């Protein structure tokens, strides 16, 4: 059984490198090409195999059955079109084709919520890291109609620094991040919000999202801490999530608050739900932890690719 | 001008060591004794001066004009009484005498909110670290009557590990904390909440507090990220805080989100306020950063001691 | 093809947990039991599989074909004997049976140097983490007779904190290790030296070892930086190592200085050799990086177990 | 008593920022200007005082009695000349005027070894961070003539990342440094070696230096671990250092191995000496810890400035 050739456009960033690593270790995929812009010509080792980044402009798109596009936001859409024209299926990790940004609609690659539209797709928009954590956390509540109309869902989330990219910036130097912690994009100014709102709306939710991201002194991982008012107290607050995600391999409802350590280097999302005591408005606290480079980017992209290529959805992915 | 002798009960923990360091470097205080229980007999260096921890049971209480009591919660109240009986003023860093815990009322040592009651006090209950950050952040809003009655203030806060103490526990080992992040005491189960509620009530506030603390992979610092619904939009959302804290040396309202790095090793609290956009309910996001061992413990204790001893409130404390 | 049942005595420490994780993911091994002393009754998740630590005293030794003994130094030898008496092969990770400590000699489990004695062994002494790095680094030089008789090999090595164990000690708390670095056991006082000297001697080396270990603010990894005088300049200083380790899957000679990041979570040892310039005495600098919990403990133990059980030596181990 | 105006050329790097912070808090110095190249126009807060970096080309050199030059290597010498021409004394933190690099000789600013030449100087070359640690560690041995002629002193040293500068490079990003450790410039290729050799020679030493630097996952601090053969065993190996540095405020000989934590944010160098046991060649292990930005750069620069300006040598510097 021969392997399926896949390519990576924009392989030198953190998501691109994670993609290469997953592909090289994948039982059925092989890496046809890995491109970079400024870092083209550089070498990297993935799973003991040396890979040389070739220039993106020279990408042999026709050699791949599927292309992962991990180019910067804004630069991605045109390459998605080129790859599709060359006959490849495409998983686009940029923001360019996601709901809230794109006018043209392609399936949104969050399999646990929208699996049926992904399998047959030629092009899939891979979700952002924060939206993945938020949407997995609140979708069961929206689906159950348990959020009062117009209510504000308050999300305080924290991400490791690989979420800010591999391009060197002074504020991402070790000596600036270590032993530090801060919020950013405060006041609902984060580019991921339009994506979350559009998906919430498509799921039938009528609620506002207030989102405050923070930058953690860790390399990987996102923890979203979500407080959401509910229409009435639920008996076992975790039950709704357990039944909604029954049978899912990568979403687990857990009995104690998840730590980043439980999810890094895996494609899993861990969710914990509890009811707030001693507040008059019935309120749930929903915690969701993922690895921003795995379920938040490259892992989910491979999960989508598996679906698009007719492979086992979990192939090559640790839970 | 001779120095004023002060003592530290429970000097071997993180707050106790920070107290010793501040006292040794203080222009007008001198360290009369520093006690420990299990670590008595150990030596430590503060400001180049060697200090030997003596057994708490042998503390020469009568030699001190003021005693800082940094013993564990539950073990502190009886020592506060002994020190007071011996004629010393006392700043108690434990929870034992704080509002929400104690039946007997002693002044609550948060000078920026309750300065007048501290100066003449014989015994002061030094606030907890999380309550200090939360209360400084929301007091101006309560004072201005801008929170709808019965509203829920949602606090997501993160603390460095020195807040969890110096006693060795497996979950506080370096290899468990580094590159990790998690929530704890989820669902409003934190012991500090009673303190916050009692103070909010004494300030005239009618609101609920929902509090989710997190453990950061940093040694020091607390950042509280607070979302609070308000009755109507404010013009310049920072103005209320600027006027409330005008003239304060240790509380500063800043124009960009504060980082832990801006406050560690200082007694300052930095506050940033912004209005949430794109939510129907007018809502503010208030950020407050402090050093949990300084403004959250030992620094504030020295600030209270300065007030009680008639010294300049800021003496020996970096802003 | 049924799996081979193996057990872990002392599974709750860092090496024991790594062993459980490797066994659960191993294609041919299955975990028959995992014991602990103080932490018996606790649960842990390895590869998605929940494991409960049972009391060591209740270990069903007869159910295992091979037992990994990861008990503390001093407590291990008697359990090795019990497991052997019960008919199991044993890989002992403690110091108890290693050269330099034990009077009785069992094969020393460093496959790249002593493979032939391991395959048929009933009991193997798994090397220490520092000795593994040091011995892999200098064995080719000893073998080639290139070190002047009586010369001093100077080893400055640094280890992550998991090397210091999982038992909570104040000096291993996050707040004590982060942003810190120090030497320990200075002056050749480390317990691993006897092991290194005995093995060097058995390899025919006539040299002294001066060893200064350091504690790094990282969870995993050892880097040994070794300066060794040589009898005469070598042409290509790396050639000796390349030929000595030709064909080895877990020892690689690399062209640039290895980083801990290159080896953590793998069973590989990376070695870099260069000649010192501008010193009159011809001298080599040999660098060797390993993961202290993998090639320095559990990974090497599984490598030895694979050999003892007639499996592929690299089975279940990432290179 | 008016303050002495001093300026900083190249204030936006880590050493420059540390200089600004020390000057702003110094009892007798005031900051006349702080310049930057790419970061001119940026604002920074030092000791609660806002400083705006002005373009280096506009530096009002004539307004300063003393100028600290913290410009990049190669760009510094010409600005030192301009500042001297404008009448200012100059402390140059670059490599440009140091022994081993410069042909012209200016006093080398290591007060504990060469104090007498510094006080009257117009221009002083501030030592490098690694040379400071190495030279303070071995000078007493050289002075005592206890190193065999032609012997090799082996230095394994590790530095925090601020030593690599503030310019953003991919390899200095948090996610590349955290949980990592590696050697660099292996084989005696570090630019600081010429400086060390020239100073050793000027002190009368006849020895070779083998130097292997490493990059630590910490922001600040250098630890040098030095093995040096000696002509004969010394009784109390620390005695030589104690007598050599008697009376020094910033060099302390300590009884246990120094940790970075003991020196960061101070101008102190801590030295520990022990004799190696079980090696035939009598050998000492000398450890020296400093803060690379303090005693290794800005702190020592202020110490030199104090001497040049006739102030107390320790003014404004924590020990």
What would you say this structure looks like, in words?
The structure is a homotetramer of 319-residue chains. With 319 residues, chain A is of the alpha/beta class. Chain A has 2 domains: 4-127 and 296-308, NAD(P)-binding Rossmann-like Domain (Rossmann fold, 3-Layer(aba) Sandwich); 129-292, 2-Layer Sandwich (Dihydrodipicolinate Reductase, domain 2). Chain A contains 8 helices and 15 strands. Chain A has helices at residues 14-25, 77-85, 111-118, 129-144, 174-177, 193-202, 239-244, 294-308; strands at residues 4-9, 29-36, 43-46, 49-52, 54-55, 66-69, 89-92, 123-125, 151-159, 182-183, 207-215, 222-229, 251-253, 269-275, 283-290. Chain A has a 7-stranded mixed β-sheet. The first copy, chain A, has a 6-stranded parallel β-sheet with strand order 5-2-1-6-7-8, with helices on both faces. In chain A, strands 3-4 form a two-stranded antiparallel sheet. Chain A binds chain C through residues 45, 48, 178-179, 262, 319, and chain C through 45, 48, 178-179, 262, 319.
């Amino acid at each position: 059984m021969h392997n399926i050739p896949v390519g990576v456009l924009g392989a030198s960033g953190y998501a691109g490198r994670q993609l290469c690593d997953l592909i090289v270790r994948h039982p059925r995929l092989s890496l046809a090409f890995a491109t970079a812009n400024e870092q083209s010509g550089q070498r990297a080792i993935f799973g003991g195999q040396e890979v040389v980044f070739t220039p993106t402009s020279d990408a042999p798109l026709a050699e791949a059955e599927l292309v992962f596009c991990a180019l910067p936001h804004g630069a991605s859409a045109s390459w998605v079109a080129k790859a599709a024209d060359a006959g490849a299926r495409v998983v686009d990790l940029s923001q360019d084709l996601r709901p809230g940004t794109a006018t043209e609609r392609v399936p949104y690659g969050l399999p646990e919520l929208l699996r049926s539209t992904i399998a047959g797709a030629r092009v899939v928009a891979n979700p952002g890291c924060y939206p993945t954590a938020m949407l997995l956390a609140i979708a069961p509540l929206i689906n159950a109609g348990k959020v009062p109309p117009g209510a504000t869902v308050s999300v305080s989330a924290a991400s490791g620094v690989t979420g800010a990219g591999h391009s060197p910036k002074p504020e991402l130097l070790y000596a600036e991040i270590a032993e530090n912690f801060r919020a950013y994009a405060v006041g609902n100014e984060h580019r991921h919000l339009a994506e979350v709102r559009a998906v919430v709306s498509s799921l039938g939710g009528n609620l506002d999202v207030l989102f405050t991201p923070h930058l953690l002194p860790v390399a990987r991982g996102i923890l979203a801490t979500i407080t959401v008012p509910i229409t009435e107290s639920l008996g076992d607050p975790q039950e709704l999530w357990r039944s909604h995600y029954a049978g899912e391999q990568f979403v687990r409802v857990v009995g104690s608050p998840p730590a980043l350590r439980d999810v890094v280097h895996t494609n899993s999302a861990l969710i914990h739900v509890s009811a707030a005591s001693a507040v008059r408005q019935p309120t749930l606290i929903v915690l969701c932890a993922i690895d921003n480079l795995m379920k938040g980017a490259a892992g989910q992209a491979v999960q989508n690719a598996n679906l698009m290529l007719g492979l086992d959805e979990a192939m090559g992915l640790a839970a």
